[in-house]
């Protein structure tokens, strides 16, 4: 399916059925997590991850670091305001139209490499992997899980 077409109701149903068949985390520390492609993903983000895999089409020109210059907005702005996080903008029933983005395109994701859409892995687009300090990851995870658990208890 092209990146600018909308997923069908059948696609949404298929994604929901797939998610319901996957292993779920048990215990306070893994509440709301689903095992997908050997990666524990929070269940509320998983439809977006799967939709991203199915509908995103990479371009060879998606990132060209040689075109960066001293006036580039990434050097003076918060990257989260400038770089689209792909799986957060998608759901089982909605795939945003990314075809209008000018080349070179730059996107962010938290999806592990093995779970990226096939079009990315087979294209010549550039992939930059950033790995954080493991202790920082554990501390961040603890805060994230506490925040998600608090939201779940509050009905959010």
From TrEMBL:
<feature type="domain" description="Sulfotransferase">
    <location>
        <begin position="31"/>
        <end position="149"/>
    </location>
</feature>
<comment type="similarity">
    <text>Belongs to the sulfotransferase 1 family.</text>
</comment>
<dbReference type="InterPro" id="IPR027417">
    <property type="entry name" value="P-loop_NTPase"/>
</dbReference>
<keyword id="KW-0808">Transferase</keyword>
<dbReference type="InterPro" id="IPR000863">
    <property type="entry name" value="Sulfotransferase_dom"/>
</dbReference>
<dbReference type="GO" id="GO:0008146">
    <property type="term" value="F:sulfotransferase activity"/>
</dbReference>
<protein>
    <recommendedName>
        <fullName>Sulfotransferase</fullName>
        <ecNumber>2.8.2.-</ecNumber>
    </recommendedName>
</protein>
<dbReference type="Pfam" id="PF00685">
    <property type="entry name" value="Sulfotransfer_1"/>
</dbReference>
């Amino acid at each position: 399916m092209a990146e600018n077409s909308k997923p069908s109701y059948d696609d949404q149903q298929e994604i929901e059925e797939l998610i319901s068949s996957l292993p779920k985390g048990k215990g306070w520390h893994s509440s709301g997590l689903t095992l997908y492609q050997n990666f524990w993903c929070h269940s509320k983000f998983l439809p977006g991850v799967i939709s991203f895999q199915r509908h995103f089409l990479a371009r060879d020109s998606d990132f060209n670091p040689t075109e960066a210059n001293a006036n580039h907005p990434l050097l003076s702005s918060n990257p989260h305001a400038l770089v689209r996080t792909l799986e957060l903008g998608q759901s089982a029933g909605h795939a945003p139209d990314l075809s209008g983005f000018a080349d070179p395109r730059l996107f962010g994701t938290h999806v592990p490499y093995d779970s990226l859409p096939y079009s990315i892995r087979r294209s010549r687009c550039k992939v930059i992997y950033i790995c954080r300090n493991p202790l920082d990851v554990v501390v961040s995870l603890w805060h994230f899980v506490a925040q998600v658990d608090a939201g779940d208890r509050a009905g959010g």
